[in-house]
Amino acid sequence: MTIPAQAHVVTQPAQAPESVAVAERETVAPPARKPRKGSTQGTRSPWPVRAALRLVVPALILGIWWLLSTVPRLGLFIKDPVTSCERFVTDFLSSDPGSFFLGDATYHDFLPSVQRALEGLAIALVVGVVVGVVLGISPILTALFQPLVHLGRSLPSPALLGVFFFLFGTGDSPKVFLIAFSIVWPILLNTIDGVSSVGLARAQTAAVFRIPRRDVLFSILLPGAAPKIFAGIRTSLSFSLIIMIISELQKSENGLGYLLVQSQRNFDYAGFWAVLIALVLLGVAFNVIFKAIERRALAWHRGATQQND
Amino acid sequence: MKLMREPLSGRKQVVLGVVGTVGSALVAELVVRSGLIHVAGLPVPSHVLSGASRLVSDPVFWQQVFFTLGEWMLGLLVATVAGVLVGGLMGAFRSVFVAFEWPVESFRVLPSVAVGPILVLLIGPGMLPLALTVALSCVWPILLNTMYGVRSTDTTAVATARSFGAGNLRVLRQVKIPSALPFAFTGVRIAASIGLIVAVSAELLIGSGSGIGGYILSNTANATNLDLVYAATLVAGLLGVLVNVVLARLDDVLLGWKKGLAQ
Q1: Residue B101: inside a domain, yes or no?
Q2: Do the chains contact at B205 and A249, CB–CB below 8 Å?
Q3: Contact call for B110 and A153, based on CB within 8 A
Q4: What's the rounded Cα separation, in Å, for the pair A174 and A182?
């Protein structure tokens, strides 16, 4: 094998298949970059000023929310922040230590929703990474299935909700499968992209030392693709919440999406706003947990990328 | 395991792509036809294709497709204007970043389709609440990418501009915004593919029968029309791919200079 002759050729896959996950690929960079403190203003402002700054926009939003709720006609369905929060507390929380201070709605709707979202995410993660590695290792397989993967990513999967109910019956499975089917694509695309651009130095090392397959997979390919896989999961995570809600609109007995529809049908708009608050809290929780996992899993990466590749 | 390989030529990739797509469709057709997997309701590629050809000649369907496309474009436009404006300011001024960080972080995670019903009540039915729902989920990638783009402006370029006597505003206008453009466009591309899916989702939830989502909704009511549902989804997906290709081309043509920027 004439490595020098191939050298500049092998680097190509990193840029060559320009259609592969270009969009997602470039999202990898931003999260890794830390905000430079005081980059434009030189000195940091004192803390009372910063605290005031932090609170001015949220206060403005709450103010507008409250103002809208006082308009006669709009007030019917825009409930003011205090009523909404009170409703959230009575629905989703309780004073009973036996149920861990969580209310009925948490057990009846919130947790089942979260469970389905997480099950869908787990399926999507396994399928996306396994298929992505298989396709990504071989340029021929990548080329064969590239159009289908791109089509899959563009399919408006919520439209298939009715079909999924038809295929998998009622209960949780059609919802979980719809979530998995919808969010597998960013993970799949990014895994293909990550695996097919391992970098010249690592590829040569693996070839020269004849590193066994297993080690190549678990010590070179997967860690090398991990930053991109995480970027894919980040996209999938926010998508999973949307699909979670959509999947509960029909033929459901519980879940946050079900609660949204029910509260609207019963003209119970305080309940509706309470669900919105629950959704924001859920999203923030997902985000915080994801960031913590990512930081741990990719801790080595920040150091490594400064020297290699 | 071989990691070193020759990249395939563009033509080979196209040929392989066609082979893979047609081959997968044939395999799926055979598997379903031969009864190897016997589940009612699975898509049979030939039925889906004939359904798609029927759709393509149906003016009502095209009306709905154009409705969805219009809604999507409007949403994307609103999201781009808002995202670039707020994201640019957040990137350029630390005080703006501090002020908007919490609201952005909490609204970003709120699934936009959940807000849809309220928008319908506020604005009334029609395209606008749907487009705003689309905008609500498209704005975040554009905003964040623009923000990171402005932040990662080459410090040498900024210093150069300053030493030529440019003030804060002029540096923003002539150095930071141009160098953030490629990032913003990347955001728009990500947003575009999210947008179509959200558009159809929103139509399913609050669309009152308009758009591709509405078309599908009225056809899933009786389960006999599954092929039509598959076909409509396929056509919508192909539209999404088409827009992606167009945006990628635009990216190359308009912002081709960013490759030099990276070095």
Answers
A1: yes
A2: yes
A3: no
A4: 12
Predicted local confidence at residue A109, as pLDDT? 85
The verdict on A239 touching B (C-beta cutoff 8 Å) is yes
Quick: pLDDT tens for A20-38: 333 444 344 444 344 444 4
Q: A184 with A148: CB under 8 angstroms?
A: no
Number of domains composing chain B: 1
**B10 SS3 class:** helix
As a whole number of angstroms, the distance between CA B223 and CA B200 comes to 19
Residue carrying the six token digits 């440019």: B166
Secondary structure letter of residue A15 according to DSSP: T
Under a CB-based contact definition with an 8 Å cutoff, are residues B43 and B228 in contact?
no
Rounded to 10 degrees, the C-alpha dihedral B36/B39/B40/B44 comes to -50
Which CATH number do you get for residue B234? 1.10.3720.10
ipTM for the whole predicted complex goes beyond 0.90: no
Q: pTM of the entire structure?
A: 0.82
Question: How long, in residues, is chain B?
Answer: 263
- What count of other Cβ atoms lies within 10 Å of the Cβ of residue A133? 19
Q: What is the pLDDT of residues B24-54, one digit of tens each?
A: 888 888 888 777 776 777 788 888 888 888 8
Q: Which residues of A touch B137 (CB under 8 A)?
A: 242
Residue written as token pair 């130095």: A201
Parent domain of B87: 54-262
Q: How many domains does chain A have?
A: 1
